[in-house]
Amino acid sequence: MSGKTALSKSLILKGMQCPKALYLQKNPPAFEFPPQPDLEAKFRAGNEVGILAQQLFPGGTEVPFEGLSVLEQIEQTRQLIDDGAEVIYEASFEYDGIFVKVDILVKDGDAWQIHEVKMSTSVKEVNLDDAAIQFYVLGNCGLLISGAYLVHINNQYVRQGEIDVKQLFAGVDVQEEAFLRQANLPKIIDDLRSALQGDEPQIDIGPHCSDPYDCDFVPYCWQHIPDNSVFDLKGRGIKKFDYYDRGIIHFEDIPLDDLNKAQRQQVEATLNEEDSTDPKAVKAFLDTLWYPLYHLDFETFNSAIPKFNDTRPYQQVPFQFSLHVQHDAGAEPEHYEFLAEPDVDPRRQLIEQLLDLIPEDGCVLTYNQTFEKGVLRALAELFPDLAGAIDKRLENVRDLMVPFRRRDVYRWQMRGSYSIKEVLPAMVPELSYSGMEIADGMAAMQAYHDMCALEDGVELEQLRKAMLEYCRLDTLAMVRILGELENAIK
Ligand code: SF4
């Protein structure tokens, strides 16, 4: 290896987003970062996609990451090339202290094709830099490159039986762009290395903290941003960093005339700790409901590799519902629930049970109807024999989010949001998601994947219990919030 500071492709990409992020990665600050629970799951999912993509060019040899030093990985790659390998997975190269691994390297006459696998459904700007770094290092290692491809997920693919890798993945030729971009790399890399020599770079927060990726160091760099800052303003139309750059950070400092109506209400309500209710509008909303009332919530999962037949990559597949049924206003509800068995397509069973529970003329209450209606429509499309019955329920869907989105009811603790996660603690403080093992939809989705990976046993039972508790709270929250709306107009 060269004597220069060793860098990998991902470190260079990090540095291109923000040199300070690269510096902090190499020189971790004395700071306690909150855990990132989904990191391992993301890594696992990426790995699974990468391994499947290898089938696009079967019969290759993998240069493993684990168990080999960087030098050994590079030597093994060189050996495979010398021995006439046609396809190499995770081929490893180093030039000028920059180490890269190529997902799939394919022999093409005297030259080689680079195939870089991505979990996204299209090619993004940052992926072109990614390909350029590969191109730069391999070219300087003496390889003739005849093609550079970004292989991404084709979200139009519908699974039928075994996964068809040729349909699941789509390759985009980015050779020309990669070639052009590599010309800038020596200077970029030199600048990054210089930044690493000195003290922590003095780079302020900015749009680069989340573009193209959410930076890992946000908790560290954003410590000086207080609660109720310009960054907490909801809605569009405000260039937040323009205000920050002018020293306008606290709600108190933001000129109210610059804000739209909803933002103004958010700021004023927060500063004065003031709530508001429009009883007429709330009553008009309540008048659109009837009893018995069916409070419904679905949980869904998605995955890059479709898990079941008749699903596309990243399609939301329902695996759970919770249903609270109220026969009269203010009545204690009955509760029903469904949770899929691991690894079994749950959709037919789920919708049949739901149709049994909700009569054709039942009023179905959701929180954010777009989501629940989308799930129901997809099920109607999948099961034409049930489409008529599902359509009848669809006609009767109402949305409890409406009075909060319209700000018919506003509590200053909602922080400008109408998400149920903000509305519930503001409206019903005694009911809360905090402290729950599963406390949001993302965690529920991950729990589904974990459930499918677990063997029968105590751990599986505990996980299923936590999943049921979470989904149950979602509809119980709706019952209680509705009760508060009814109280508000009394
Ligand atoms: S949080 Fe922002 S300023 Fe800090 S390292 Fe990351 S991108 Fe740079």
UniProtKB/TrEMBL annotation:
Superkingdom to which the source organism belongs: Bacteria
Annotated ranges, domain DUF2779: 294-419
Entries under InterPro entries matching the protein: DUF2779 (IPR021301), PDDEXK-like_dom_sf (IPR011604), RNaseH-like_sf (IPR012337)
Protein name: DUF2779 domain-containing protein
Organism encoding this protein: Desulfuromusa kysingii
